C-alpha cells in the first residue's frame, strides 16, 4: 500500500470512515479521526479502539475500502 494513499485517507476533510485489510487477514475499521494516529511519514499507523491500540506497518495493508 502506498504511504500517500494512507495519508490521504487519514487527513481528508471531512473525515470519511474507511477500513483496511492486512496481509495476515486482520481487518480494522476507522469510524472517525480519533480512531487513527500516525507519525508525519505515515509508514506506520495506529488503530485506537475502546480497549486496544494496534500499530500497523503500512507495508502490510493489502486492501482499503470505504464504509
Structural class: mainly beta
Percentage of helical residues?
10-25%
Strand residue percentage? 35-45%
The average pLDDT value, as a whole number, equals 93
Number of strands: 6
Strand order across the largest sheet: 2-1-6
How far is the N terminus from the C terminus?
Answer: 18 Å
Question: What is the CA-atom radius of gyration, in angstroms?
Answer: 11 Å
What does this structure look like?
- This protein is mainly beta and 67 residues long.
- The chain is built from 1 helix and 6 strands, in the order αββββββ.
- It has one helix at residues 3-11; strands at residues 18-22, 27-30, 36-37, 44-48, 53-57, 61-66.
- The strands form 2 sheets. The chain has a 3-stranded antiparallel beta sheet with strand order 2-1-6, with no helix packed on it.
- Strand 3 and strand 4 (44-48) form a beta hairpin.
- The radius of gyration is 11 Å and the shape is globular.
- The mean pLDDT is 93.
Can you lay out the helices and strands and say which pair or pack?
Elements: H1 3-11, E1 18-22, E2 27-30, E3 36-37, E4 44-48, E5 53-57, E6 61-66
Output the keywords.
single chain, three-stranded antiparallel beta sheet, mainly beta, globular
What is shown here, in short?
The chain has 67 residues and is mainly β. It has one helix and six strands.
Amino acid at each position: 500500500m502506498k504511504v500517500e494513499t494512507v495519508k490521504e485517507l487519514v487527513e481528508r476533510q471531512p473525515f470519511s470512515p474507511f477500513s483496511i485489510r492486512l496481509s495476515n487477514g486482520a481487518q480494522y475499521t476507522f469510524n472517525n479521526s480519533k480512531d487513527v494516529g500516525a507519525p508525519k511519514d505515515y509508514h506506520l499507523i495506529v488503530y485506537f479502539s475502546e480497549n486496544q491500540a494496534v500499530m500497523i506497518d503500512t507495508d502490510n495493508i493489502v486492501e482499503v475500502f470505504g464504509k
